[in-house]
User: Which sequence fits this backbone?
């Protein structure tokens, strides 16, 4: 499999790991970029941008990066003049309905708000309508008492944070990100993609499977878990991820599009993007332990995933960022001053992914 472009000789192990992902780990198309102390030392891409493998992955190929967007959203929120210990309802009054008047911004950002799903069945395509999703979440009673547990708000996080940003700043989260972060950094990262960019977007190769039907009999927990991923149908991207409508929507938790270079550039510059004290707060552990949605340990700051023993972002304790479904990843290690971006179009394991793990290990072996 051809692997293109630049790699500092010192980081040859990263190039080898990237190539091995194609040779033995099922990669179809991908890119990886590493910035160390402000200098790009790895910038690789290769493979194919479509299922038929007739279109080559190029230097500027974009692809859906799923939950990498949550880290980008966290950076946006950290720039805003808001009190994270204030109730969300101070900024978004409608949110105080259904017993949520005391739910804090801190709880919402750290997956403690009890809102991983909407109980009421939503129509097809509802995830493309931010106002509809925000209104449904504002009306939703929490699935657990906020602050007593944490559970990954897999898809709702982006609507919660997006509406909070809009109420505080006046702009949508995608607009704020573009104007205040991506454009100043010349970072090729988008939350809400213009049709003019469609020609360079890779197809995401979602496994072919029928959309699940809502079972007739469900416990409350089973309903919560089902709705987290499938209310409305297509909420996670299944069946719609390659559509123009999906690409155009602003769904910060799920539908960001980026190059690996763009992701690495944002994380390598994060200390310039977010004021020091706010970044320290955003990357301080808020929760760590059993996640009631994922059924495994997770560790979060204020929107950022934090390195954890079960799934490390390298060997240093202060690394933070966010994984995306199937293996994509963006993170920053302040101790090693490493900004890392990896994107791909072939769904892989969501939890222990051998492709991103091989790349991370090769980076640190090269330092």
Assistant:
């Amino acid at each position: 499999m051809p692997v293109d472009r630049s790699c500092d000789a010192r980081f040859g192990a990263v190039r080898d790991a990237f190539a091995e992902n194609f040779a033995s780990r099922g990669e179809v198309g991908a890119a990886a970029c590493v910035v160390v102390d402000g200098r790009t030392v790895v910038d690789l891409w290769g493979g194919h941008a479509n299922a038929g493998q007739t279109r080559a992955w190029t230097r500027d190929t974009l692809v859906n990066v799923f939950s990498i967007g949550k880290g980008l959203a966290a950076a946006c929120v950290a720039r805003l003049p808001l009190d994270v210990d204030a109730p969300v309802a101070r900024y978004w009054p409608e949110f105080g309905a259904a017993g949520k008047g005391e739910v804090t911004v801190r709880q919402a950002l750290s997956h403690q708000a009890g809102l991983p799903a909407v109980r009421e069945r939503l129509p097809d395509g509802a995830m493309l309508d931010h106002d509809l999703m925000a209104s449904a979440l504002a009306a939703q009673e929490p699935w657990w008492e906020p602050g007593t547990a944490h559970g990954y708000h897999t898809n709702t996080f982006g609507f919660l944070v997006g509406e909070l940003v809009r109420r505080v700043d006046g702009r949508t989260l995608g607009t704020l990100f573009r104007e205040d972060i991506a454009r100043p950094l010349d970072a090729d990262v988008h939350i809400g993609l213009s049709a003019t960019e469609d020609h360079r977007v890779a197809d995401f190769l979602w496994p072919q499977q029928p959309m699940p039907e809502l079972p007739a009999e469900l416990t409350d927990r089973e309903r919560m878990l089902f709705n987290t991923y499938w209310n409305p149908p297509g909420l996670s991207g299944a069946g719609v991820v390659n559509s123009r409508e999906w690409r155009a929507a602003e769904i910060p938790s799920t539908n960001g599009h980026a190059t690996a270079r763009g992701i690495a550039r944002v994380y390598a510059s994060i200390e310039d993007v977010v004021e020091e004290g706010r970044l320290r707060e955003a990357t301080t552990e808020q929760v760590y332990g059993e996640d009631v949605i994922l059924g495994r340990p997770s560790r979060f700051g204020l929107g950022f995933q934090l390195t954890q023993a079960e799934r490390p972002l390298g060997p240093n304790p202060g690394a933070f960022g966010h994984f995306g479904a199937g293996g994509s990843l963006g993170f920053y290690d302040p101790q090693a001053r490493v900004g890392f971006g990896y994107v791909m179009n072939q769904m892989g394991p969501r939890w222990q992914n051998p492709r991103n793990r091989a790349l991370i290990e090769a980076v640190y072996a090269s330092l």
Q: What stands out?
A: The chain is about 30% helix and 15% strand.
